[in-house]
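for the recovery benchmark. tokens below, seq after
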């Protein structure tokens, strides 16, 4: 079946008791057992280990990514944490892309190191650096492409090949493009992480995460971390996300078209220093983006002339339909200042070296009319 059919129907079964067309919200902690001997005969015992509504969402995402199985979490960060807890031990080494979501950087830097895992942050868009960083103890390579917030693109197949040649696995965060535009398993990845908070839900209503894996062994190790640490998604979040995903392709296409229009407008503007959008031919990895993804996504970043002060002025003065807020991938267009908001936890020196400068502005382009978005940006740029 095609992606659009699967995004609507995969995982969803009408309620066998009432015939309700949508998977019910099984808002329950525990599940009644038939007998001690038949414990788990119906597949569920306690919602920290599994829940039928959450399972419906997991099955949908497994179908969309083309994986073996999925576990769902209370946030995107919980999903990343479950992967790291489930797969690593003291003495292991990991290679992490230098530009990743700030919370991912923070957890790896502050907690994985603390528990004896050695970490190298490298520019994964230059795969020779990934190769050079590999050690005999390297267990895992973690990428994010396009990366939050600079939109640097990594060659996922090349990184998978390097990881596998060294006996390591490739974990990639597919939040920005979603399986609708990018299918990392077809590019050799072993584990896919999602913040479902973003495009998969898309309505600014839930915090959630997911990990899709390629093998039963990976599923077992990561699901064990989830149940042990209690990192689960709630049934209500799973239900809302199940509804959100049904329109994923339509939202992605429209939001990406809007993002392209916004990026083209910004590129020609006299107050703009530079624009990064993988869909622009000027993006350094435009050709790679075309090769490994079927769309460019709804995220744009740029820097205005006049540095930090000019950038702040723009973000403080911009009007509706833009909103100054964290989060991304929603139907509402959002404008964010990564240096003080989403990536504030990265040490300044590292942050600036990775291109997350103080003047960088990140846009998550929504579903509004492109002309209204461009008019509002034009007015705000005019105030600088
Ligand atoms: C690419 C990416 N991965 C992971 C996360 C973490 O997700 P959550 O905020 O749902 O914990 C984010 C959040 O912004 C993100 O942008």
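predicted aa per position
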């Amino acid at each position: 079946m095609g992606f659009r059919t699967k995004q609507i129907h995969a995982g969803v079964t009408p309620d066998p008791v009432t015939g309700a067309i949508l998977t019910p919200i099984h808002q329950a902690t525990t599940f009644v057992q038939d007998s001690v001997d038949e414990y788990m005969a119906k597949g569920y015992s306690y919602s920290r280990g599994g829940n039928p509504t959450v399972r419906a969402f997991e099955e949908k995402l497994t179908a969309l990514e083309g994986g073996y199985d999925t576990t769902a979490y209370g946030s995107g960060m919980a999903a990343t944490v479950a992967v790291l807890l489930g797969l690593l031990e003291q003495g292991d080494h990991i290679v992490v892309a230098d530009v990743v979501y700030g919370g991912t950087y923070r957890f790896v830097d502050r907690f994985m190191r603390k528990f004896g895992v050695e970490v190298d942050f490298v520019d994964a868009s230059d795969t020779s650096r990934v190769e050079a960083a590999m050690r005999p103890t390297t267990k895992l390579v973690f990428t994010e492409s396009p990366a939050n917030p600079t939109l640097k693109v990594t060659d996922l197949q090349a990184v998978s090949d390097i990881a596998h040649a060294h006996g390591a696995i490739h974990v990639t965060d597919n939040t920005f493009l979603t399986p609708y535009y990018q299918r990392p398993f077809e590019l050799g990845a072993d584990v896919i992480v999602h913040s479902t908070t973003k495009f998969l839900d898309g309505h600014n209503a839930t915090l959630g995460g997911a990990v899709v894996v390629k093998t039963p062994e990976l599923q077992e190790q990561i699901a064990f971390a989830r149940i042990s640490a209690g990192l689960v998604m709630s049934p209500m979040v799973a239900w809302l996300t199940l509804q959100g995903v049904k329109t994923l392709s339509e939202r992605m296409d429209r939001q990406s078209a809007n993002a392209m229009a916004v990026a083209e407008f910004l590129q020609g503007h006299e107050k703009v220093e530079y624009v990064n959008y993988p869909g622009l031919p000027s993006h350094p990895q435009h050709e790679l983006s075309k090769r490994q993804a079927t769309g460019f996504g709804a995220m744009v970043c740029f820097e205005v002339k006049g540095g930090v002060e000019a950038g702040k002025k723009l973000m403080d003065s911009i009007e509706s339909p833009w909103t100054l807020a964290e989060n991304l991938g929603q139907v509402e267009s959002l404008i964010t200042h990564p240096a003080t908001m989403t990536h504030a936890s990265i040490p300044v020196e590292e942050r600036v070296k990775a291109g997350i400068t103080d003047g960088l502005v990140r846009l998550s382009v929504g579903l509004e009319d492109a002309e209204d978005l461009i008019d509002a940006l034009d007015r705000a740029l005019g105030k600088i």
